[in-house]
Design goal:
Among the domains are: 106 residues, Zinc finger, CHC2-typedomain (DNA Primase, Chain A), CATH 3.90.580.10; 134 residues, DNA primase, catalytic core, N-terminal domain (DNA primase DNAg catalytic core, N-terminal domain, Alpha-Beta Complex), CATH 3.90.980; 136 residues, DNAb Helicase, Chain A, CATH 1.10.860. The strands form five sheets. The protein has a five-stranded antiparallel sheet, sandwiched between helices. Strands 15-14-16-17-18 form a five-stranded mixed sheet, sandwiched between helices. Strands 8-11-12-13 form a four-stranded antiparallel sheet, covered by helices on one side. It is built from 28 helices and 18 strands. By secondary structure, it is of the alpha+beta class. The radius of gyration is 32 Å and the shape is elongated.
Length: 626
């Protein structure tokens, strides 16, 4: 009779077997979570979709949108974005659809580049490339149906609020919007609506449409009064601003009170489809103009954005917060070369603005900022000063680093040593976020000039605070990084992947353990296991399957151009196998000789005799000289 541990072990093996069968049947790609960055996002993406996205993407075009590439023979080159260097060692191969830096060793396919450059997960990188090449990624069935239902409700609710605005009961709201200077055309274009003052107008309407309370709670449209045991509308007696994404999907709503009730603004809580930090208000109407101008103006509120748009400034969005988020910045970086961030003129607005600028610097978005005169926001500035004055103001905007520095000087002054030190310490937090070493050095210089400290002194203080290296101690890469493998190993792997028909023969004559480099042993073992699925063995696809370190190594190997006559392929291949076996034997002999010396030093005659016999046996069998 089986013991309890044995039974548990059998159950475990059965579950593993079932999972493997299911994975094979469904063809879901789960290794990306483990091997490519440890993402917490467990959302699986079908493997065939990943391959289609990668094959549709042009790695040169995508990388060139982030860093400038220059043609160099059959490849493209650039200064590496991942380490400081004077001479370009970062290469991109359009033929193999891979990148590799010979200075720091970073490498991989288009997904690896975005993961490293944008500090995002594999799943996020795949989704970003998919959007660039116009491929829709199917969501899991339960998530997809849930999202569809919420989007369906939101569209229905938007139409309901529009109807209320245009009804007799919406007169007060229409008058309010008119008092804010909005035209009928703009109100219609932005699909503004009105939520009636009653507590359950929307709730009753949606219940009649057959929607369950649970679904309405998930959509963030109603709230529960637990003590009273009832439910009520989230928005009441408010102007409604539908939040619509660039794909024209209604994600959620914002509501502004018509009077002095608090809070003045109220937003849909986060739902399955609405994520505040990922959304930009007005993008559904302005994205094409933003693309056209390669520039975007970012304001804070709904009415700020609408008023600028009505004034003919149509490359504008609202962040719906005092600071841009990383997700919003990454979205904008795909379409713009520059962002101009507008802040209100009040002191509180200026202080709040500084908190978000570090994210802009960290994400590498080229951006400028300007604060409006005291007492102004973009909405009332346009109405009182006009469009032309606003455009003049934008012309005088500063780079975000300079804006933060000058704002701190206004707040603290620089007459006393204490105030200057305070400014320096706050600016160090910004400088530390900047990934580019050259920019960091430039900003230290600007800071020194502004606050009146010697640049050398600031560098010393910066090092104490951040434990970073100064430019004088930064090692600028001018030479090629030492390889972790030998040329023979690289040639064999290169030949295997460009001529998969050789793999079957190689499996018979060369085991993975006969490769000298341990990382390559694991890589070859994976290649052997994948064969004969030649589609997966294509370098771009293989890079998705292997670990991050193996991907870097593989990209480096595939970056080496091996030229040979196809007619002598078999001879070249055989020669490489023989040479690798010889290298392996020589390495083993060197190891034996080192052990013999140790035994001799320890006066261990028995061990020394055993090692000498082993060495003699290997030499005679292999017929090599040592």
């Amino acid at each position: 009779m089986l013991s309890s541990p044995a039974i548990l072990l059998l159950i475990l093996w059965a579950l593993i077997f079932f999972w493997m069968k299911l994975r094979k049947k469904k063809n879901w790609n789960l290794w990306n979570v483990q091997d490519l960055g440890g993402s917490q996002d467990k959302m699986a993406i079908p493997e065939n979709i990943i391959n289609e996205i990668r094959e549709r993407a042009d790695i040169v075009e995508i990388i060139d949108s982030y860093i400038p590439l220059k043609k160099s023979g059959r490849s493209f080159k650039a200064l590496c974005p991942f380490h400081p260097e004077k001479t370009p060692s970062f290469y991109v191969s359009p033929e193999k659809q891979i990148f590799h830096c010979f200075g720091c060793g970073e490498g991989g396919n288009v997904f690896h580049f975005l993961m490293k450059y944008l500090n995002i997960s594999f799943v996020e990188a795949v989704r970003q490339v998919a959007e660039m090449v116009g491929i829709e990624i199917p969501q899991k069935e339960h998530q997809d149906s849930g999202s569809k239902k919420l989007l369906e409700i939101n569209k229905l609710v938007m139409d309901f609020y529009i109807k209320q605005l245009n009804s007799e009961k919406g007169k007060s709201c229409r008058e309010y919007l008119k008092s804010r200077g909005l035209t009928t055309e703009i109100i219609s274009q932005f699909q503004l609506g009105y939520a009636l003052p009653q507590w359950d107008v929307l709730l009753n309407y949606l219940k009649k449409k057959g929607y369950q309370i649970k679904t309405l709670l998930e959509a963030g449209l109603i709230l529960e009064a637990k003590e009273a045991g009832c439910y009520y509308d989230l928005f009441r007696d408010r102007v409604i601003f539908p939040i619509i994404d660039h794909k024209q999907k209604v994600l959620g709503f914002g509501g502004r009170t018509l009077g002095s009730a608090l809070p003045k603004y109220l937003n849909t809580p986060e739902t399955l489809v609405y994520k505040k930090g990922k959304t930009l208000y007005g993008i559904n109407l302005t994205l094409e103009e933003i693309k056209k101008q390669h520039s975007v103006i970012v304001v804070e509120g709904y009415l700020d954005m609408i008023t600028l748009y009505q004034a003919g400034i149509k490359n504008v969005v609202a962040s719906l917060g005092t600071a841009l988020t990383s997700d919003q910045i990454r979205f904008l970086k795909k379409y713009v070369e520059e962002a101009i961030i507008i802040f209100d003129g009040d002191q509180a607005g200026q202080i709040a603005s500084l908190r978000g600028l570090d994210i802009v610097l960290e994400e590498g978005l080229k951006a400028k900022a300007v604060a409006l005169p005291s007492g102004y926001d973009p909405d009332n500035f346009i109405h009182k000063q006009g469009r032309e004055e606003f455009l003049k103001l934008i012309e005088d905007c500063q780079e975000v680093f300079d804006y933060k520095l000058n704002t701190l000087i206004k707040i603290y002054g620089k007459d006393s040593l204490d105030s200057r030190i305070k400014i320096v310490e706050e600016m160090f937090s910004s400088i530390d976020k900047i990934p580019n070493y050259l920019l960091r050095a430039e900003y230290i210089k600007r800071l020194a000039d502004k606050v009146g400290f010697e640049e050398k002194i600031l560098w010393q203080q910066y090092n104490l605070k951040t434990q970073k290296s100064t430019p004088t101690s930064i090692k600028i890469s001018q030479t090629v990084r030492e390889k972790k493998y030998n040329t023979v190993e690289a040639t064999i792997i290169n030949l295997m992947l460009t001529n998969p028909q050789l793999i079957e023969e190689l499996k018979q004559v060369l085991s993975p353990q006969e490769f000298i480099t341990s990382d390559l042993q694991r890589l070859v073992e994976k290649i052997y296991n994948i064969y004969p699925d030649c589609e997966k063995l294509r370098p771009g696809n293989l890079l998705n399957i292997v670990s991050e370190n193996e991907a870097k190594l593989l990209a480096e190997i595939m970056s080496e151009d091996i030229e040979y006559n196809p007619e002598v392929l078999d001879n070249l291949f055989t020669d490489c196998v023989v040479r690798l076996k010889e290298l392996r034997i020589k390495k083993y002999c060197e190891f034996l000789m080192q052990e013999i010396k140790k035994a001799q030093t320890a006066h261990d005659e028995d061990r020394m005799d055993k090692l000498l016999r082993e060495l003699n046996k290997v030499v005679r069998k292999s017929k090599i000289s040592i």
